[in-house]
From TrEMBL:
This is Carbohydrate ABC transporter substrate-binding protein. It is found in: Periplasm. Belongs to the bacterial solute-binding protein 1 family. It comes from Caenimonas sedimenti. Transmembrane segments: none annotated. PROSITE patterns: TAT. Its main location: periplasm. Keywords: Signal, Transport. It holds the Pfam family SBP_bac_8. InterPro entries: Bact_solute-bd_prot1 (IPR050490), SBP (IPR006059), TAT_signal (IPR006311). One of its GO terms (cellular component) is periplasmic space.
Length: 442
């Protein structure tokens, strides 16, 4: 968190009474936090349509729809919810933005809001109300949804953490008493796992969530897509070092990861084909809810860990951020804002976090105290994902360029090309540089 502007974290958070142990996540909030009010007047006869990404854990959508039902019962506003895969939400939202028709509200990923900011309803009033009431938005949320430091393009929903998921028994069988905390140990573990016939595997296809490990690979060695001035700098000695390290790592992977999308590593892990990967909590969730004895018996063996720290010497976490946007063309802007406010209030939001089993990490500091993070010790690793994450456009300012470059999978493609040997690290970095420069035009 030290890399971010702490002032932004506390902005609009006058009710934070004490944060003596902010680094540990143990923040104390004053009772006055509950005195915040926001008067919205939904339009008469309002009906809303929501487009959101499809669930990876059933409890997410079940709890979400219960909250939708509560909203309708309270307000009389009918809400239709359409669920689509992550890869389908982005193009459908873009079509809606360009044609001026479609869903009123979209729940999407990363900085999609920056693809069409002029098409989105200003939700500053709701964002400031929620920030003041619930301890402040984490820094990455400001960066994604308030890049100009003024208008809020949407509201943060949270993030699916890209954490390490591993079989503890297999890591120990490979000679490691605990999961490595540095990149040297990380590589040594993967080599040992391959030698034992229990390899790891990480998605190298255009996977919206699970390819985010490639950001970690680049950042951990000091590489960046752009610098603080939004100058493209991905073709750098630091990136080359990351890709050379990646080649050694890739040599330990199970075959086929070049085509892996988001569901593939889940299936490979639960099938016993791999012993370590990166993922949200959905793999662990599946072991807790499955009726298949072979899957269920994995539950006690699964552990979670953060990605190791590389030569840069600091954590470089990359997680799948979720946003909530309202299109300007909606006939019911007040109703749409009231829906988002209602869904983010503690009574609903805690229930949703719990229902999703820890799959979504919260964007507001007060929700650190949600029982989901301590009800099962294996959930705790995911609690601070939004708090600690770097936005995908690091280290530049987010906007159309970062959103476009992210949607184009430039970093993921570069890593896949270089570590698989289809291009040399230098060739892959040069190609990524040219692709990124098309978005970050001088």
């Amino acid at each position: 968190m030290s890399e971010f502007n702490r002032r932004k974290f506390l902005e609009g958070s006058a009710s934070v009474a004490a944060a003596a142990t902010l680094g540990t996540g143990a923040t104390v909030f004053a009772p006055a936090v509950h005195a915040q009010t926001l008067a919205l007047k939904p339009e008469k006869g309002a009906k809303l349509r929501v487009l959101r990404w499809s669930r990876f854990v059933q409890g997410d959508i079940d709890a979400y729809m219960l909250n939708v039902k509560k909203f309708t019962e309270k307000t009389g506003i009918e809400v239709r919810v359409d669920n689509e895969g992550w890869e389908d939400v982005r193009p459908k939202a873009a079509v809606a933005a360009n044609t001026g028709g479609g869903p009123d509200i979209v729940l999407s990923t990363n900085d999609d809001a920056n693809l069409y900011p002029e098409k989105l309803l200003d939700v500053t009033d709701v964002a400031e109300y929620l920030g003041k009431k619930y301890g402040g938005w984490y820094p990455a949320v400001h960066q994604y949804l308030r890049p100009d430091g003024k208008r809020w393009l949407g509201l943060g929903l949270g993030a699916a953490g890209s954490m390490i998921v591993y079989r503890d028994s297999m890591v120990k069988a490979a000679g490691f008493t605990s999961f490595p905390k540095d990149t040297a140990g990380f590589l040594a573990l993967h080599k040992a796992l391959k030698d034992k016939g229990t390899p790891g595997g990480y998605a190298l296809g255009n996977a919206t969530g699970d390819s985010l490990w490639t950001n970690w690979l680049m950042w951990s060695h000091g590489g960046q897509l752009v610098d603080k001035n939004n100058k493209v700098v991905i073709d750098s000695p630091e990136t080359i070092k990351a890709l050379e390290y990646g080649k050694e790592l890739y040599a330990t992977f199970i075959p086929g990861t070049l085509s892996w999308l988001d569901p593939n590593n889940n299936k490979a892990f639960l099938d016993g084909q791999i012993s370590v990967t990166n993922n949200g909590i959905s793999i662990y969730y599946a072991t807790k809810t499955s009726t298949d004895p072979k899957v269920k018996e994995l539950q006690s063996d699964i552990q979670h860990a953060s990605f190791p720290i590389g030569p840069v010497g600091v954590p470089t976490e990359s997680h799948l951020f979720f946003n909530q946007m309202i299109f300007k063309y909606t006939k019911y802007p007040q109703a749409a804002k009231e829906f988002l406010r209602f869904m983010m209030e503690r009574e609903q939001f805690d229930a949703w976090l719990i229902g999703a089993g820890g799959y979504i990490a919260h964007p507001l500091a007060a929700y650190e105290s949600c029982p989901i993070w301590t009800s099962d010790p294996k959930h705790t690793a995911y609690r601070d994902c939004v708090k600690n994450m770097r936005p995908t456009g690091h280290a530049g300012r987010l906007g159309y360029a970062s959103a476009g470059a992210g949607a184009d999978f430039i970093v993921a493609n570069m890593v896949a090309e270089a570590i698989s040997g289809s291009k040399t690290p230098k060739e892959a970095a040069e190609r990524a540089q040219k692709r990124a420069e098309r978005y970050y035009k001088v």
